[in-house]
Amino acid sequence: xxxxxxxxxxxxxxxxxxSAKNKKRAHDNILDMIESLDLVDIWRAINTDTKRFTWRxxxxxxxxxxxxxxxxxLEPFVKNVDMDISYMSDHYPVFLxxxxxxxxxxxxxxxxxxxxxxxxxxxxxxxxxxLENELIQHREKIVTGIMARAKAILAxxxxx
Length: 160
Fold this sequence. Notes:
This protein is an alpha+beta fold. It is about 45% helix and about 15% strand. It folds into two domains: about 1-100, Deoxyribonuclease I, Chain A; about 105-160, no CATH class. The chain contains five helices and seven strands. The strands form three sheets. It has a three-stranded antiparallel sheet with strand order 1-5-2. A two-stranded antiparallel ribbon has the order 3-4. The protein has a two-stranded antiparallel sheet with strand order 6-7.
């Protein structure tokens, strides 16, 4: 889950020019959700002591109010999580990159693969090929849709 949570997680690590924690009840609700769903604030998990902000407000207040909460099971697949700057908003974008293919080998899916008589590496290669083909088909559908819309727009503009 990602979004503008508008809630601080840690007053000391996540603020600049704040005098007190904001929205205590919302903060407690988010902590309950994190615990009950086994979620992780992945930015803070990776950058334990780094101070960076996604929101700047009056009085030079700054805090990371925008963040990703991911299932803890997805942590091994996180390739990158970062924040950027924005010139059009008081909130800055956050980015999360997950990588699954290379991590599968490292996770040693013995439990899943133990039931197969095939060589596990061959099974993984087969699954990856299927996923690659599905991705190619999905991309082709998207490109076809974009091209059809572009042709319709050009035809409509030509009629004017």
